[in-house]
Predict the structure.
Amino acid sequence: MSHQTGASTNMSILVVGSVAFDSVSTPFGKADEALGGSATYFSTSASFFTEVRLVAVVGSDFPDEHIKKLSGRGIDVAGLKKVPGKTFRWKGRYDYDLNCAHTLETHLNFFSSFDPVLPEAYKETPFVFLANIDPELQISVLDQVKKPRFVACDTMNFWIEGKPDALKRLLQRVDLVVINEAEAREFAGASSLVKAARIIQGYGPKTLIIKRGEYGAMMFHEGEVFHAPAYPLEEIFDPTGAGDTFAGGLMGHLAATQDLSGHNLRRAIVFGSVMASFNVEAFSLERLDTLTKKEIRLRFSEFKRLTHFEEM
Ligand code: AMP
């Protein structure tokens, strides 16, 4: 497989997660077996900001053109393993409430036996994002990275219900958790998000970001709460991957700026919201394929105007 392992820089991000075929239907259309997966969305989004190294597994049915598309974006695919068999498949449906994905089918295929081995050059990557995937795999990747500077993870109901203990073990070792509103409530067994945040932070992470779909994102960090809106769009075609593109913009900005202060975390959340707002404008990765850095900058400035008000 073509790859481009380069020297580790202090701005690199390592991501492990799913690379998938998604079949998605929304009230506005559908996509069959389109390129998707948590690591695909994350790495594409983060690649607008910095160098990204991908760790994932696909089957022999996965077309090389998809891999070329990722490496064409500068994503290091040396850790993307192709094995005989079928690629992970996810089938989901959204109704008019686009904040809520209904999983119809999850075919892990050989994901359940995937044993990720990091290429030597990946082991010193300073920023690590453990995208939504089996928490045992997230732990196994983290075990192989030497003294990462900043580790963040995502998860979902499938793993909260299926592997809660592994998830709790993982949370002891991460700096930041990025999680959906409904999943935060379910995981913590609390309906108040403030209470849910306190309970989840009690498992280990210093910072928690709760994604609230069209209502934006909330950050709990060092006793402070920050709330950013989502960009008000008139049309949303497909929310699939919004969470991962959000995380890609967020981590991309943190790694590119090397600044982990509370102020910069706030900016990073806005960059995450900017990336997610573009992603939902089309199915699969279509919108990110044509996106430019200039468009990202402009929408970032629009967020400033959207949230700015003068004190009396
Ligand atoms: P989100 O950003 O939350 O919309 O994530 C959507 C992506 O998650 C889709 O592209 C799916 O392929 C992927 N996905 C769905 N279920 C799982 C799962 N159980 N494990 C890993 N990835 C999944």
